[in-house]
Design brief:
Blueprint (H helix, E strand, L loop, with lengths): L3 H13 L10 E6 L2 H12 L2 E7 L5 E6 L5 E6 L21 E4 L3 H10 L4 E7 L5 E6 L5 E6 L4
Parallel strand pairs: 1-4, 5-8
Antiparallel strand pairs: 2-3, 3-4, 6-7, 7-8
């Protein structure tokens, strides 16, 4: 479903000729040893859906996934001859640190992840406004945040 606020903002800029460009996040891109295995993991735990799996760049397969929101998740195989360096998912690193998924029941989600042997990087933590967050390690050492908004 398109982001109505972003769409209205874009329309306003086009109609009124404001001299700035509206940028919206298009996708998050992950490199994986096996994109289909990683995609299956995201389908299982986050109800994402594979939209396509194809060779986009020579010698690599890219799986494009619908996340249920305006941002796609792309998972690509490694380019032949590229580095095999892997680092564990950790908080407070430079560069792209993590991305997050919203949830309505963080306790149930963390319990399910634990039952499946998923590494919990940061247990459920309540933040000032009553919202809760936690971090897990996804496939290919990707750091993923779960965010539950404060009860209304």
């Amino acid at each position: 479903m398109p982001n109505p606020i972003g769409t209205l903002y874009y329309i306003h800029i086009k109609l009124f000729g404001v001299g700035i460009m509206a940028y919206l996040i298009n996708h998050i891109h992950i490199r994986a040893k096996d994109p289909m295995v990683s995609a299956a993991w995201y389908e299982k735990f986050f109800d994402t859906k594979v939209l396509s799996s194809k060779e986009v760049m020579p010698g690599t397969i890219t799986v494009t996934m619908d996340t249920g929101g305006p941002v796609r998740l792309n998972i690509s195989s490694q380019v032949s001859g590229s580095s095999d360096y892997e680092a564990p998912a950790e908080l407070n690193t430079l560069g792209l640190e993590h991305f997050g998924f919203s949830t309505d029941d963080i306790e149930a989600d963390i319990c399910e992840f634990e039952n499946h042997g998923v590494r919990i990087v940061l247990p459920i933590t309540e933040v000032g406004s009553g919202a809760k967050l936690a971090y897990i390690e996804g496939p290919d050492h990707v750091l993923i945040e779960l965010v539950q908004s404060a009860a209304k």
